Batch of 3 targets.
Target 1
Amino acid sequence: MKHLAKEHTNAHIEPKKGFKIHLLVFVLTIPALWLLWFFTDRTYLWPVWQTAAWGTGLLFHYMGVFIFKKNFHQ
């Protein structure tokens, strides 16, 4: 019987599919954060930071997948 703890398996996902998942989570989460802000204390515009930071990450993810293409399959 093989020792399962020594086996290394990596789940590989296609880069385009990974970006689509990232975009979907962004599109579903950011409006929820803005709604949370809207229905709570609106004295500080805190969702701007999450939107800007995550949007920047999403932009770099897009650039890595569609502009600076790499072959990830060896």
Target 2
Amino acid sequence: MNLDELRSLLARHARPDTTTAIDGVLISKVERRAPPSPSMSGTLLALIAQGAKRIALGDRVYEYHAGQYLIASVDLPITGHFTEADPERPALGVGLTLHPAAVAEVLLEAAPGDLSPAAGGAPSGLAVSTASAELLDAVIRLVRLLDRPRDINVLAPLIKREILWRLITGEQGAVVRQLGLADSGLSHIARGVRWIRDHYMRSFRVEEVARLSGMSVSAFYRNFQAVTAMSPIQFQKQIRLQQARLLLATAPNDVTGISRRVGYDSPSQFSREYRRQFGAPPSQDAARLRDATPGTAAALV
């Protein structure tokens, strides 16, 4: 695969905030390895052109290198860091936000027999594969549009659809296809994930979220763990701790108040679980967060 052109394009167009002139396209350039950082994954395709990255989701670890891509089909609490990056050879990556409606439109245009049968059950929310020559070619043509701004509005949507088709018919097609199916197991779990994320401060019963997701308790619990590598309660704890970390970056002296704001009744339990998650007590960790708050999209790209 010819990654040289993609590396050159990404190095030239990288910005500090990862955004580009093409809606939903992100570019990352990282010159130094850093400790693992927590964030939310978003739903996106992330392809590495240079360097390597490691992502942890629950007890699962995913690594991807130059020429490989990662799919995130659910917005998940992850911890990640680049394992290969330095000023002479920075890590370079490109991301494309995946929208369920866009995936659904492509699926509707597929002819009968174009797609292989989907496996049963909900797939993992993260998956890694090597990019095919066709997928890499489409990604390069999409990034090339940054050199021709006049072409973006007309051509970018067409190339994005091509990329989706390459993903849908590729090795991780089942993961991407479920993102666009309104009644897939993944869509039901995504509904539960969104509810927990939006109401992370309050206690809940798994039965309650299963009902909101339109699944039986046993099916919800089984599929939730398959997608997120966590139980619903563990997932809630990850969201609470990540949110607390973001709040501490701006209010490092209000550990007790922040612990209550994210849903903890016991400050000591909060401090204990925070230290277990991030390797330092809240007040100590807050001191090193003031100048660097983890991003969302940059977690994967």
Target 3
Amino acid sequence: MRKEIKKLIAATMSMALVLGVGNMVNSSAAEKKIAYRAFSFKVESGYAATKNKGDTVKRTTNDVSNAWGVNFKTSDEPTKDNKKTYTIFYIAEVVKNETNKYGSALHKIQEGSGLKTYSAYRNVSPGPTALYAKDNKDGSREAYTITGTWSPQIGDTPENDGE
């Protein structure tokens, strides 16, 4: 009788361990990717940072190689000969009542160039994160609107850090 109870306890513990590990793997997988979100906001002229207002997303991983991504689709910035323009993008840690801290390096991205993915700094992992943009210092004298999609973590490694 005692052997049977020990076997039953061992089987129950094994089952609990399997279920526990399964739940941990599933919750970990859920933290790897955050769906892309649309953005549309005005970038100030000059080199002032502009936040994608009202769109703060919590980065849920502390893995800095889990890239953030941006797909810069359009800009209404006037250019010579209607060429595509560039805007500088980065993510920042959102800190209540403080200056938001850089959460990544600055990246100069051409409109319409497709999805670009970059590594994040450790200070935004995990934490509230927002997308920021700056004008590319090309002499623009007026604010302009940009559109696209972004995610604070795409569930994949960065591909464009060297650009």
